[in-house]
Description:
The chain is mostly beta strands. Helix content is 0%, strand content 53%. It has strands at residues 3-7, 10-13, 18-25, 32-39, 46-51, 57-59, 67-72, 77-82, 91-99, 107-108, 112-117. The strands form two sheets. Strands 2, 4, 5, 6, 9, 10 and 11 form a seven-stranded mixed β-sheet that branches. Strand 7 (67-72) and strand 8 form a beta hairpin. The chain is globular, with a radius of gyration of 13 Å. The model has no long low-confidence stretch (mean pLDDT 96).
Amino acid sequence: QVQLVESGGGLVQAGGSLRLSCAASGRTLSSYTMGWFRQAPGKERERVATISLSGSTDYAESVKGRFTISRDNAKNTVYLQMNSLKPEDTAVYYCAARRIVAIQYEYWGQGTQVTVSS
């Protein structure tokens, strides 16, 4: 089992920055593909960014060039640096983990709220 705890959310003005952290316990994250997802009110959850075991990254088009996902396996933590934030980035952000053999993400955090004011 992997327990994931997100932190770093908050209220920020448009154009500002936040860094989200996802700390894991129970297992080492070095064996998992990690992802950040978000869900805005009334909308479906969407993938924001993913990072593989080798460090390869992938981003949703809406955040490319503004968000950066990274991982520190020594600290068992994954980060999401969010710059040039827009009001449409407002959502609850979740981190998730899956093993290579898994098709879907298996473990989820409880989420952290990000609110961007205009």
